[in-house]
Design a protein that fits this description.
The structure holds 2 protein chains of 2 kinds. By secondary structure, chain A is an all-alpha fold. In chain A, 68% of the residues lie in helices and 0% in strands. The two termini of chain B are 19 Å apart.
Chain lengths: 573, 86
C-alpha cells in the first residue's frame, strides 16, 4: 500500500493494462458472484439446489448464528433506505448489477469504461430505488458539477436544460395528457436553463468572491443543512425531512470535499467531462450498504491515479481475493463475535454482549463493573463493529477492484499496528485520508511553521478532534437519526472521545518524530514481545476511549470518566 | 557558502532516508520507489517535509505532497532545485 498513491498513468500504459483478456479470470469473478448469490439470496430454489443451511446440514456440520429463517446466510450486506423488494431480491439485483458492471468495465474499450460504470449504476439504482430517487440524486450531483465546472458556451444551454428536465422528473407532478406533461417538462427545463445561464454562471464569471461562496456552500451543503435543520427543530419543533435522493447525495459529501480539495490544489484539470465526474461518485460500488465506508474511493486524484494502473486481470484477481475475505466476514461475523463473548464469559469476565452502551447502562444503574470487563468489553465492541463492517466494506472495495481500480482496503490488518498513528491508517484508511487531506494538511502547512510541537499538535487536533467530530460524526449522526437538536447535542457531548484520541495520536506522532524507530515492527528478534505489548496497548487505548463515544442514555460525563478510569484499575466510587 | 547542486541534494536525501527509516533493508538508488518503500505513512511524509524545510530552507505547500514529486530521489532532488531557484 502506498500512502502517497501512485503516479498518474499515461493513456498508453492504461491501454497496455487493458490489452490481455483472461477467460479464467472472467469466469472466476462471475463464479464468485454466483457463490454470493447462492449464499445470500434464494437463487438455490431456481436451480433446484438445496438452500445453504440444508447443504451444510447434509454435510453433517452443525451451525449456529449463520443462517436466517429462510435458510440463507444471514447477511449484513444490504441495500439501505429502500423497500422496493425484499432483502434477498435486492441482493440478487445488486450481484447482477455488479456482474454487468464488471463485464462492461472488463471488455469495453478504455474510453467507454468509466461511462459504463455510471450506466450500470443507473440501471441498478432505478431498479432498486425507483426513477424519482435516482433522478433526484443525479440532479443534485449534476448541479454540483455545473457549479464546480462551468460549461463551455456551446454547452451551457443544453446543460441547463438537462438540469431542468432532471428536476422535473424528480419533483414534478405528472399529468394525464402527453402535451401537458411536455409543457411541464419544458417549463422546468426553461426555468433552470435561464436561471443558470442568465444569473448563476454570469455572476460566477464576474465575481470571484461569489464563486468561492457558492462552491463552499455547495460542498458544505450537508453540514449546513443538518446544522440549520437541527437548530430549526430546536427552536420551532419542526423536523426537516429530505428527499431520499438528496439524503443519498449527502452521504457522498466527504468524498465531495476530497474532490474539492483536489480541485482547489490544481491536481486535477479544471475541465472534467460530465460522465467522468458522475462516474467518480455514482458507481455500482456505492450501492451496497450505502451509508457504510462512504469515503472509499476518495476524490478525483486518488481514483484517476489508481484506474487501470496495473494489468486488469491482476486487479480483478485482487478483487476476487478481497471478496473472499469479505465472504469470511459476512458468513462468520456472528460466529466469531458470539464465540469471543462466550469465551470471555467462560473465564468469568462479563462483556455485555460486546456492547459498550450496555456496559455503561449497567454501570449507570449502580451495578459494579470490573476493570477486566471494561478492558474486554471495549475491545470486543470494536471487534464487533469491525466484523459487522468488514464484509460490506471489503465487498465494496472488491467491486472497485474488479472494475479496474487499485483500491486500498478500508481495513488493513489493524491488529498489526504497534502505535496509534499506524493503527488509524490501518483501521479506517479512506476516512483517515479524508481527515488528513481536508483538515490535517491545511493546518500543518499553514500554522506554526517554526514550532514542530505546536505544528503537529494543532494539525492533529484539527483533523482528529474538529474534523472527525463535526464533519464526520455530527453529520452522520443526523443522517442516521434525523435532524433533531437532541441528536446534534448527543454527538457533541461525545467530545472527550475526540480530545483523548487527538491527545493519544499527537503524543505518538511526537514520540515517533523524536525517537526514531530502529527496527521494523514484527521482526523476529528478541524485541518481538515488545511489539506485542505495543500492539495491545495501542488497540486497548483506541478501544477504551470509546467509553465516551458510545454513552447510553442517562450517562453523564462523570459516569463515563469513572468507567474510563476503572479500565486503568482506578475505582473512584 | 558552498553552492548546492543536485548531486549534493541527492546524497543528503539518501542519507536522510537511510538513517531515518532504516527498517527498509533495500538499497536506495536515485530511482527507488519512495512511496512504496520509504514514505509509507503520513508521519514519514511529515518527517520528510520537515527535513526538506529545515535542511534546504524551502517552504512546502500542501499541493507539493504527491507521488509525482515524492516518487524517487531524482524527482525529489529536482523539486528541491526548482524550489531553490524560484
Amino acid at each position: 500500500m502506498s500512502f502517497l498513491g501512485s503516479k498518474p498513468l499515461t493513456q498508453e500504459q492504461q491501454k497496455e493494462n487493458n490489452a490481455r483478456t483472461s477467460w479464467p479470470v472472467v469466469c472466476a469473478v462471475i463464479g464468485l458472484l454466483l457463490v454470493y448469490a447462492y449464499l445470500f439470496t434464494h437463487i438455490a430454489d431456481w436451480v433446484n439446489l438445496p438452500r445453504p443451511q440444508h447443504l451444510v446440514e447434509q454435510m453433517g456440520i452443525e451451525t449456529e448464528d449463520i443462517f436466517d429463517d429462510d435458510h440463507n446466510v444471514d447477511s449484513e450486506l444490504f441495500l439501505s433506505s429502500t423497500d422496493e423488494f425484499n432483502n434477498d431480491d435486492e441482493r440478487l439485483i445488486l450481484f447482477a448489477v455488479v456482474a454487468v458492471a464488471f463485464l462492461f468495465a472488463y471488455f469495453l474499450p478504455m474510453r467507454f469504461k468509466k461511462a459504463s460504470l455510471f450506466i450500470s449504476f443507473l440501471i441498478g439504482m432505478v431498479v432498486l430505488y425507483g426513477l424519482r430517487t435516482t433522478t433526484c440524486l443525479v440532479l443534485v450531483h449534476w448541479l454540483v458539477y455545473l457549479v464546480l465546472h462551468i460549461p463551455k458556451p456551446s454547452q451551457k444551454f443544453s446543460f441547463g436544460l438537462i438540469a431542468g428536465v432532471l428536476a422535473c422528473i424528480a419533483f414534478g407532478e405528472p399529468d394525464d395528457t402527453w402535451y401537458k406533461n411536455a409543457s411541464i417538462v419544458s417549463t422546468w427545463g426553461i426555468v433552470f436553463c435561464f436561471s443558470l445561464n442568465l444569473v448563476i454562471w454570469p455572476l460566477m464569471l464576474r465575481f470571484e468572491t461569489f464563486v468561492k461562496i457558492l462552491r463552499t456552500l455547495v460542498v458544505q451543503s450537508a453540514l449546513l443543512t443538518v446544522c440549520v435543520g437541527a437548530i430549526w427543530e430546536g427552536v420551532n419543533g419542526e423536523v426537516w425531512t429530505l428527499p431520499l435522493g438528496v439524503l443519498l447525495f449527502f452521504w457522498h459529501w466527504e468524498r465531495l470535499m476530497m474532490y474539492h480539495v483536489d480541485y482547489k490544489s490544481g491536481r486535477m484539470p479544471k475541465e472534467v467531462s460530465p460522465i467522468n465526474y458522475l462516474s467518480i461518485f455514482l458507481t455500482p460500488a456505492s450501492l451496497p450498504n450505502w451509508k457504510w465506508g462512504v469515503t472509499i474511493g476518495q476524490g478525483y486524484t486518488y481514483l484517476e491515479n489508481n484506474f487501470y494502473c496495473e494489468d486488469k486481470n491482476k486487479l480483478a484477481i485482487e478483487g476476487i481475493k478481497i471478496w473472499g475475505i469479505a465472504l469470511v466476514y459476512l458468513v462468520f461475523n456472528d460466529v466469531i463475535r458470539y464465540g469471543l463473548v462466550d469465551l470471555f464469559e467462560y473465564f468469568g469476565i462479563e462483556v455485555y454482549n460486546a456492547r459498550i452502551t450496555r456496559m455503561v447502562s449497567y454501570y449507570v444503574d449502580g451495578k459494579e463493573v470490573t476493570t477486566s470487563s471494561v478492558l474486554a468489553t471495549t475491545v470486543l465492541d470494536q471487534i464487533r463493529w469491525m466484523m459487522l463492517w468488514g464484509g460490506s466494506v471489503h465487498f465494496k472495495t472488491g467491486i472497485w477492484r474488479v472494475c479496474g481500480y487499485r483500491m486500498d482496503p478500508y481495513f488493513n490488518k489493524p491488529w498489526m499496528a504497534t502505535n496509534l498513528v499506524t493503527f488509524w491508517i490501518r483501521f479506517t484508511f479512506h476516512y483517515r485520508e479524508f481527515l488528513v487531506r481536508c483538515f490535517y494538511y491545511p493546518t500543518f502547512f499553514r500554522f506554526f511553521k517554526n514550532n514542530i510541537v505546536l505544528r503537529i499538535t494543532l494539525a492533529t487536533f484539527a483533523a482528529v478532534a474538529m474534523g472527525n467530530l463535526v464533519w464526520g460524526h455530527v453529520t452522520e449522526g443526523m443522517f442516521y437519526h434525523g435532524m433533531f437538536f437532541e441528536n446534534f447535542w448527543e454527538v457533541i457531548k461525545t467530545w472527550p472521545y475526540f480530545v483523548l484520541l487527538s491527545l493519544g495520536i499527537t503524543v505518538t506522532e511526537l514520540y515517533l518524530f523524536w525517537r526514531k524507530p530502529r527496527r521494523k515492527p514484527w521482526t523476529l528478534d528478541r524485541y518481538w514481545f515488545t511489539d506485542f505489548i505495543a500492539m495491545y496497548c495501542t488497540i486497548q487505548f483506541y478501544c477504551i476511549v470509546h467509553v465516551f463515544a458510545k454513552p447510553s442514555s442517562g450517562a453523564t460525563l462523570a459516569d463515563c470518566s469513572k468507567l474510563f478510569l476503572i479500565g486503568f484499575g482506578i475505582h473512584l466510587d | 557558502m558552498e553552492p548546492i547542486n543536485k548531486e549534493k541534494i541527492s546524497s543528503d536525501l539518501k542519507q536522510f532516508f537511510q538513517s531515518e527509516f532504516p527498517a527498509s533493508d533495500i538499497e536506495l538508488t536515485d530511482t527507488s520507489d519512495l512511496p512504496s518503500l520509504f514514505i509509507t505513512d503520513s508521519l514519514r511524509v511529515l518527517t520528510t517535509v520537515l527535513h526538506l524545510e529545515e535542511k534546504f530552507g524551502i517552504s512546502l505547500v500542501e499541493s507539493d505532497i504527491n507521488a509525482e514529486i515524492f516518487q524517487n530521489i531524482d524527482s525529489l532532488s529536482n523539486f528541491v532545485i526548482n524550489k531553490l531557484q524560484s
